[in-house]
Amino acid sequence: MEMTLFDQLDKNQLKELLIKCWMTHDGSWFYNCVRELGVDTANKLNKAAIKTLSEVEMQRIKKTMGWENVKIKTFEQLKDFIINGFSVLKGDFMDFEYTFPENNRMHWEMNRCFAYNGMKMIGVNKQYECGIIYRVSCWLDALGISHTIEPEIDKCLLNSREKCSGDIILNL
């Protein structure tokens, strides 16, 4: 039997292909919801889907890490979990950085937002409600970690600011 594409790809190439396919599905789903139901309903359905997905994602990451029975209680545990989670859920095309500048604080800087660019392409960037930071917030909710986001995000921050950046303050 000949070698398949799966056999030829290294781990990173496979991860990138799968994440790009997933994000294309996500964007296509949102686009078609906008076309059929309008942007307000698309935003509502997108957030509902993200919330549902986040529960499953966190269970799967915990299981894969061997943490099924671990209750994350410390900042160091959470930091470790987030770094490991993003190592498989963040694609190279997702041009953002996250740091932990101090205890119980995660900072993000979106350099070029793929979601905003997609929303701009379909003409709804002014009405788009950020799904990226919402997804991280839902991950934390799924892990039982109380937190706040500064600045508060409703519509995409790139509509009111030059850069999408902020902090997630963790209550551990």
Task: Explain what this protein looks like in three dimensions.
- With 172 residues, this protein is an alpha+beta fold.
- It has one domain: Muramoyl-pentapeptide Carboxypeptidase, domain 2 (2-Layer Sandwich), CATH 3.30.1380.20.
- It is 54% helix and 17% strand.
- The chain has 6 helices and 4 strands; from the N terminus they run ααααββααββ.
- It has helices spanning 5-8, 11-37, 39-65, 75-89, 114-122, 132-142, and strands spanning 95-102, 105-112, 146-150, 164-171.
- Helix 2 (11-37) packs antiparallel against helix 3 and helix 3 (39-65) packs across helix 6 (132-142).
- The protein is globular and about 40 Å long.
- The mean pLDDT is 95.
Write the layout of secondary structure elements.
Layout: H1 5-8, H2 11-37, H3 39-65, H4 75-89, E1 95-102, E2 105-112, H5 114-122, H6 132-142, E3 146-150, E4 164-171
Antiparallel strand pairs: 1-2, 2-4, 3-4
Shape: globular
Which architecture per CATH?
Answer: 2-Layer Sandwich
Biggest beta sheet summary: 4 strands, antiparallel
CATH class designation: Alpha Beta
Low-confidence stretches: none
CATH topology (level 3) name: Muramoyl-pentapeptide Carboxypeptidase, domain 2
What strand line-up does the widest sheet have? 1-2-4-3
Query: Whole-number average pLDDT?
Result: 95
What is the SS-derived class? alpha+beta
Amount of helix: 40-55%
| Structure annotation, total helices | 6
Distance between the termini: 53 Å
